[in-house]
Write a structure and sequence with these properties.
There is one protein chain. The protein has a seven-stranded mixed β-sheet with strand order 1-7-6-5-4-2-3, with helices on both faces. The protein folds into three domains: 53 residues, no CATH class; 261 residues, Type I PLP-dependent aspartate aminotransferase-like (Major domain) (Aspartate Aminotransferase, domain 2, 3-Layer(aba) Sandwich), CATH 3.40.640; 127 residues, Alpha-Beta Complex (Aspartate Aminotransferase, domain 1), CATH 3.90.1150.10. By secondary structure, the protein is an alpha/beta fold. Helix 3 runs antiparallel to helix 12, helix 6 packs across helix 7 and helix 12 packs across helix 14. The protein is built from 17 helices and twelve strands. It binds pyridoxal-5'-phosphate. Pyridoxal-5'-phosphate (PLP) binds next to helix 6.
């Protein structure tokens, strides 16, 4: 597809907007600020608008079509929450304002802390961390400080199952601790025997994702937690998969000591493209003094029902400190509260039930066409193998790329690492049965193509603005240029 470049549409002297001559004296722009080498196209306003409109359609997005990117929870975010975040009273305040002028904003943050604590079964929540991985880092620092605060300096080991997200070992290493990998058993659970062997007085704790990255609920969760607690370790829950659990089970009740929430996955905030994330952490009673801060608390109770309490920022007593300038990603807090209030407790439970139902529906519909290594009731996502014994030259990547020709975003591929040629599929609760059917039809069709015309898959995608890229180079040496690629970049 050859789109006209805006540079070919310009014509000298053409301008976007005609303005009357100014009736105030003109000021010279300092010469040092003027660049002559930019060679920008001179176009009318409509051409410029069409250019940007066209650009906005080049990438796949949830508003274009289905986006089953496993682990990422690419659900549709109701526009209502965007409207709330843009209310001038929220959008135009400044973090250095006196707290008595922004009591409404503090109340929003307080309520988000309370909702998250209630949903997760935790004693305290901090909204400081800016992403899931940032929440992990905060959680590990709290676990570490908890042990050090008791004078227990021997603990340096973090136990992490091999089904963990890559951020778990990364956050652990960044905190100066050692990662010990725990294998999964044949049902996709943590291998309890190996875990028990590793539990000793040098363990800081365990970091576990439940449901795990295979989309499976850990069948021995309570035994796993008990084993870690028995040797004095703490248990970290990677809460990125919380979309499967809301209103059904509370990690705090199961014995988790700390967990991060990905507001940008579970609680309706835009996700990806480098936009702001938010990764609050919830903790059990014994970790509340270590929470990153400041957090929002009530500094003065209301005297009667007509009055509002006074909110203020407070630093937990033994806090690991700040994770972020000011107060976290406030706009995300507004979106999350708007989402929670719109659905209510019952509605959030329904969200999780539908997310799980949709994922199981997909698994069962695909189960004859694809090998599903852990073929049991899954939670909000599942992993299929992207390979066929009778089409040996077709790989998960080819299937993923071919899906783009059908208008769908590919599932996550080659993760988790413990499944060969993994395709990790997460439909979320916001998709209709018609969309799920269309997706499975495409997957089944692609399975047939893999046998009949494998080259169709190997050379896919065919209908996207650019064909198959060298993905490593595209990420590591990104050339952001709207002109044909300059020679220096091709070397
Ligand atoms: C997304 C994700 C993370 C990291 O969250 P970010 O907000 O992207 O930093 C961690 N663990 C799991 C299982 C995830 O899916």
């Amino acid at each position: 597809m050859k789109e006209p470049l805006i540079y070919d549409l310009g014509s000298p002297g053409r301008v976007g907007v005609g303005m009357p001559d100014p009736d105030v004296p003109l000021t010279e722009i300092p010469a040092a600020l003027v660049r002559e080498d930019l060679d920008l196209p001179e176009v009318d306003e409509l051409t410029a608008v069409r250019h940007f409109q066209r650009l906005s359609q080049l990438n796949h997005n949830i508003e274009k079509d289905f986006y089953p990117l496993g682990s990422c929870t690419m659900k549709y975010n109701p526009k209502l929450n965007e409207d709330m975040a843009r209310l001038p009273g929220f959008a135009h305040i400044h973090p250095l304002q006196d707290t008595d002028t922004v009591q409404g904003a503090l109340e929003v943050m307080f309520d988000v802390q309370e909702w998250l604590a209630e949903l997760g079964g935790f004693a305290g929540v901090s909204l400081q961390p800016a992403a899931g991985a940032h929440g992990e880092f905060a959680g590990i620092l709290m676990m570490r400080k908890y042990h050090l605060n008791k004078g227990d300096t021997k603990r340096t080991k973090m136990l992490i199952p091999d089904s963990a997200h890559g951020t778990n070992p990364a956050s652990t290493s960044m905190s100066g601790l050692t990662v010990i990998e725990i294998p999964s058993d044949e049902r996709g659970n943590v291998d309890l025997a190996v875990l028990r062997e590793q539990c000793d007085d040098t363990v800081v704790g365990l970091m576990i994702t439940n449901p795990n990255t295979l989309g499976l609920f850990e069948e021995h969760m309570l035994e796993v937690i008990e084993a870690v607690h028995a040797c004095g370790g703490l248990v970290y829950g990677d809460g990125a998969n919380f979309n499967a659990l809301m209103g059904i089970v509370r990690p705090g009740d199961m014995g988790f000591d700390v967990m991060h929430y990905n507001l940008h996955k579970t609680f309706s905030t835009p996700h990806g493209g480098g936009g702001p994330g938010s990764g609050p952490v919830g903790v059990s009673e014994r970790l509340t003094p270590f929470l990153p801060g400041p957090i929002v608390g009530i500094v003065e109770d209301a005297d009667d029902d007509d009055e509002l309490p006074v909110y203020g920022f407070m630093m937990p007593e033994k806090s690991i400190g700040r994770m972020k300038a000011f107060h976290g990603q406030f706009g995300m807090h507004v979106r999350a509260l708007s989402y929670m209030l719109a659905y209510g407790g019952e509605g959030l439970r329904k969200v999780s039930e539908m997310a799980v139902l949709n994922a199981n529906y997909l698994r069962v519909r695909l189960h004859d066409a694809y090998h599903i290594p852990f073929d049991r009731i899954n939670m909000h996502e599942f992993v299929a193998e992207g390979r066929f014994s009778d089409a040996p030259n077709v790989h998960a990547l080819d299937i993923a790329k071919r899906l783009m020709d059908y208008g769908f975003h590919p599932p996550t591929n080659y993760f988790p690492l413990i499944v060969h040629e993994a395709l990790m599929i997460e439909p979320t609760e916001t998709e209709s049965k018609e969309t799920l059917d269309a997706f499975t039809d495409a997957m089944i069709q692609i399975g047939q193509e893999a046998r009949d015309a494998p080259e169709l898959l190997q050379s896919a995608p065919h209908v996207t603005p650019i064909g198959r890229l060298d993905e490593v180079m595209a990420a590591k040496q990104l050339v952001l240029c709207c002109r044909p690629i300059p020679e220096w970049a091709e070397e």
